[in-house]
Amino acid sequence: MTHDKLPIIIQGGMGAGVSSWSLAQAVSKTGQLGVVSGTAMDLILVRRLQLGDVGGHMRRALSCFPIPGVAKRILDRYFIPDGKPEDKPFKAKPVPNQRPSRHLVELLLAGTFAEVFLAKEGHNAPVGINFLEKIQLPTLPSIYGAMLAGVTYVLMGAGIPKSIPGILDRLARHEPVKLHLDVQNADRSDDFSTSFDPNSFFDGEIPNLIRPDFIAIVSSATLANMLARKASGRVNGFVIEGPTAGGHNAPPRGRPQQSVHGEPIYGDRDVPDLEAIQALGLPFWLAGSYAKPERVVEALQLGATGVQIGTAFAYCEESGLDPKLKKAALALIQAGETKIFTDPIASPTGFPFKVLQMEDSQSCTMTYEKRTRICDLGYLRHAFKKSDGTLGWRCPSEPVEDYVRKGGNEEDTRGRKCVCNGLLANIGLGQILSEGNTEKPLVTSGDDISNVVNFIKPGAYTYKAVDVIEYLLPDRNDALVPIPVTTDTA
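RE: above sequence
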């Protein structure tokens, strides 16, 4: 690690835009680690601009973007001073692909730059960014954009991010990088990949960059051990995520079993071996239902550096969750009427996905069945090798006939929901559909959502990120863990 102190609390990287720059900034200012989500930041940037860039935050960040001409090109194409009409759809942007256009790469660079820049504004504390390994196509330029803004940590889960540490090393030296793509039906001899060269974006002096620390999000000691030994570069720590955490969960180990309600059943094999993880000699944080002071203490006693907390921050004032959704969820929480369903098939990733049951959302069967299937964003598409040897893309949540025509199994489409559009709707950026309706949200939360009542003070209906920190760490003067100082060289 390059820091003389480590946080006890890492704020989770929740969904697309829920872990917003405002939330990460608020958490980092307390001395803990604020984290922005790195998912779909190109799309979030252009939709914020089309809504008029309320507060001017995107334009302020773009004015500091170090690659000449990029900000102007983005603003000229997407910024609408008074915001688009409410009944008009958002202007589309290119979907992720293996060989993205320069325009798409610029959006990816600028999107993550802006989010990290704003999260770091006004303080000198560390800030992290969270990526999903399953979403591979935007990864390289997205990481570089975050590094241009001075991101301190890169966190990644939902897969095996073995190549990322070495990519961070190379990007810190402004060297070209390549990322191997997971492709269905591919042979061992195939080399499907995507690449990025930072030098093609600078004409003249290139800014100095610091290699951010890499924290892998894993669910087992086996995976942690493999990454510590075989990753392409230095792994600086781990988040050990249990099955009660929100968002995507690792599937249960062993033969799949489901409860009478249709949820995956986790057993003893899914409990991580913390002694084996501790023996690796790297910092680690525990995640999944740790939003209580006694559970933080428990984690520390088990040898952890601290905990990662997601759901507790998702409903605070600074999170990016749509205020109307937040208000409705908080009402359910305070009434003790929340229900979380671990849906084994909703996500096209194939990972179990925790969904908060809410009216007028994709969690309702009737609402889901009324939606016309469409795949217009493409972040969670699967790559597959076509019969002619080229790369194709399909998503189990796209129109069934399209998926089957591309060689997919119709059975895989049943119950699949459009997580991409649902997550954008969660933050008030849902698309207007051709029939005039707006995409419905798909809200994810951890099993301990009921604990949110602990952060709401008497007589209040909302709470702030600092309220979570003060509840979990009553003595904040001791809320940083000293570590030996080392120097990372890229």
